[in-house]
Amino acid sequence: MKGPLFYSKILLFGEYGIIEDSKGLSIPYNFFKGALKLPDSPSEKSKQSNLILIDFCSYLKQIGDLDLDLILFEKHINEGLYFDSSIPKGYGVGSSGALVAAVYDKYSNNKITVLENLTREKLLKLKIIFSKMESFFHGKSSGLDPLNSYLSIPILIKSKDDINVTGIPSQKSKGAGAVFLLDSGKTGSTAPMVSIFMEKMKSEGFRKMISSQFIKHTNICVDSFLSGDINKLLQNTKKLSKIVFENFKPMIPDEFHYLWKKGIDSGSYFLKLCGSGGGGYILGFAPDIEQAKKDLKDHSLEVVYHF
Fold it and tell me: Beta-carbon neighbour count of residue 254 at 10 Å?
């Protein structure tokens, strides 16, 4: 048995903000992928993944209202089922989301398929199911990562209860500007980062900053990206980068504080969190990607979208 492929994702905008009802924009990132498999001969990697699936199945049994064929899932797990994935864990590109999407696709008794008319109600139903399933990995999940991986199309979040599939402007192969991923060289963990955020939200000053600045510029970035207004996009990404630098320091690896500020000051690139932060990838926006590459020459950089 070999299941269909499920891809990684990038949340371009909306990290932390979507918890507080900001807009968000998530796109598939086909560079990494994973699939459920039964092994020909078990390896250390397949055994480790199989152990995670054993725990995941136990968790799903406790939830009990997801209409999954857990008897068949358990049977396959006992036969050595594992998730064969190139998606790096703890990097903010949806490794657990792809796994959740693969399990739903294979074992749902009443599956909402990609081929049917995806109404807002169906998207919300999927998001709720995925949120419950992925909470096993993060403690609290929006369900957005598995939804993006399952559908493999860009998703626009207008609010918690208003999500739609969307189109994004075609890439410009010769465009000077680009969105890129910067490798921090270490993994991050979502649950503790979300805990830090929720603790910060107890402060009135932090809450005010989120509603009056962070969400405001996030929403403008989403609208500007979708409409192709690159100047407005970059102006507001710079503002977002500065807001994150000043208010989300624990989520930025210490050794990247200097690079983060250097980008804002020079205008060469603007960094922001990729997912919850704390490690993994850092997301970057550059008006001129060749200049950004020179300024970041000592770091691993992967272009994901040209504009």
Answer: 8
Gap between the Cα atoms of 152 and 57, Å rounded:
24
CA–CA dist 306, 294 (Å, integer): 17
Domain range list for the chain: 6-165, 178-306
The CATH H-level superfamily of 178-306 is GHMP kinase, C-terminal domain (3.30.70.890)
* Fold category of 6-165 in CATH: Ribosomal Protein S5; domain 2 (3.30.230)
What's the maximum distance between 2 C-alpha atoms anywhere in the chain? 57
Residue 222 in contact with residue 13, Cβ under 8 Å?
Answer: yes
- In whole angstroms, give the CA distance from residue 27 to residue 138: 20
> Nearest Cα to 6, choosing from 97, 135, 91?
97
**Bridge partners for 281 per DSSP:** 183
Q: pLDDT digit of tens for each residue in the chain (307 aa)?
A: 678 999 999 999 999 998 888 999 999 999 999 999 999 898 999 999 999 999 999 999 999 889 999 999 999 999 999 999 999 999 999 999 999 999 999 999 999 998 888 898 999 999 999 999 999 998 778 889 999 999 999 999 998 788 999 999 998 877 899 999 999 999 998 889 989 999 999 999 999 999 999 999 999 999 999 999 999 999 999 999 999 999 999 999 999 999 999 999 999 999 999 988 999 999 999 999 999 999 999 998 999 999 9
